[in-house]
């Protein structure tokens, strides 16, 4: 197993560490937290007693015994932390959305160009899962595309704090938060993976008092069709997602966490289930693939993922500009 350091001690890091262990991909050897007690608690909770703790980021990178760092800090911190990691010779797995804008992305790409032996992955977990690939194959088999509606809306427990007049990181412009950054990025990943980069975009966002979007509807315009994206963090949606091709429709239960994939034909008379039961931990697939790419130095697959990440970053930024949302990072 490859040695892993982590930044951020929230539940998502725990889920990744468990996934990495299940996949026999990475073992946790170094923990960075701003507070020693949290680092220690994390190791206890996730049974990584032998890992070393660090509360100073520079020391973590210099002295930490690991080749790859998983970064799950607030979005606005990803750029500086990833940059520091690359400069310290580490591989990086950075949570989505990897970077706040194309300027940050370009800086990272330039560093990577000078360091061809290192890898940087955006942890867009769903694109590595079996049902995403099953959906992709079903979409590629369609004779033509007439559009799509992709939805991912989930009420955030942290929205309660916004309603109470507070500004949690994920709803803050200081931390590059908002619905587009947090959940919209999944459906942008879907659209870019399945249909390519759009010709133009627009986003009608509901802006919260904190200055970021709570939910909204975006349209990606392609040469022959439009894709509607519906995403948000202030309500729960149970809408299916659909990809249209004449009288055939591919139906997903959810475009961000794909539990089922079906093909409907003949006025709905013929329904074919295509998907698989998802793995219990949705991060196992990405942990497996990142470790494989690093171990096999699979630069072809790696560059495809990096290109996808860059296009998604560009589209998310264009959508954000269309809604007039500005971050400190800009
Ligand atoms: N892939 C997925 O399914 C998924 C799910 C959830 C979140 N995420 C992503 O994971 C990342 C973290 O999300 P989150 O909701 O866990 O964020 P968060 O709770 O705001 O922060 C995550 C961690 O970062 C550190 N941190 C918090 N505030 C900080 C600050 N002001 N300065 C420096 N460090 C700070 C904390 O660790 P310490 O106190 O130990 O330093 C905290 O545990 C985001 O990029 C998010 O998009 C992905």
From TrEMBL:
Molecular function, one GO term: nucleotide binding
InterPro entries xref list: Gfo/Idh/MocA-like_OxRdtase_N, NAD(P)-bd_dom_sf
Gfo/Idh/MocA-like oxidoreductase N-terminal domain span: 3-118
Domain of life: Bacteria
Protein name: Oxidoreductase, NAD-binding Rossmann fold family protein
């Amino acid at each position: 197993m490859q040695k892993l350091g982590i930044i951020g001690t929230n539940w998502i890091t725990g889920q990744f560490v468990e996934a990495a262990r299940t996949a026999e991909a990475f073992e946790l050897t170094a923990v960075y937290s701003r507070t020693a007690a949290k680092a220690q608690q994390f190791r206890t909770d996730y049974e990584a007693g032998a890992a070393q703790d660090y509360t100073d980021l520079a020391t973590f990178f210099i002295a930490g015994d690991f080749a790859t760092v998983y970064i799950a800090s607030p979005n606005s911190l990803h750029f500086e932390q990833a940059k520091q990691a690359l400069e310290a010779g580490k591989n990086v797995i950075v949570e989505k959305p990897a970077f706040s804008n194309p300027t940050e992305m370009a800086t990272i790409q330039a560093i990577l160009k000078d360091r061809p032996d290192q890898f940087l992955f955006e942890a867009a977990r769903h694109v590595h899962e079996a049902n995403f690939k099953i959906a992709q194959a079903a979409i590629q088999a369609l004779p033509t595309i007439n559009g799509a509606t992709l939805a991912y809306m989930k009420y955030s427990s942290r929205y309660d704090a916004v309603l109470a007049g507070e500004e949690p990181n994920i709803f803050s412009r200081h931390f590059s938060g908002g619905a587009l950054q947090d959940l919209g990025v999944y459906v942008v990943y879907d659209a870019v993976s399945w249909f390519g980069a759009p010709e133009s975009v627009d986003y009608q966002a509901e802006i919260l008092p904190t200055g970021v979007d709570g939910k909204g509807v975006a349209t990606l315009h392609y040469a022959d069709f439009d894709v509607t994206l519906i995403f948000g963090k202030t309500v729960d949606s149970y809408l299916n997602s659909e990809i249209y091709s004449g009288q055939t429709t591919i139906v997903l239960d959810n475009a961000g966490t794909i539990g089922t994939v079906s093909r409907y034909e003949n006025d709905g008379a013929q329904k074919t289930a295509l998907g698989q039961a998802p793995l219990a931990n949705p991060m196992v697939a990405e942990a497996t693939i990142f470790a494989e790419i690093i171990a096999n130095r699979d630069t072809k697959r790696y560059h495809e993922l990096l290109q996808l990440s860059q296009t998604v970053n560009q589209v998310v930024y264009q959508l954000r500009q269309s809604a007039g949302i500005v971050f400190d990072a800009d």
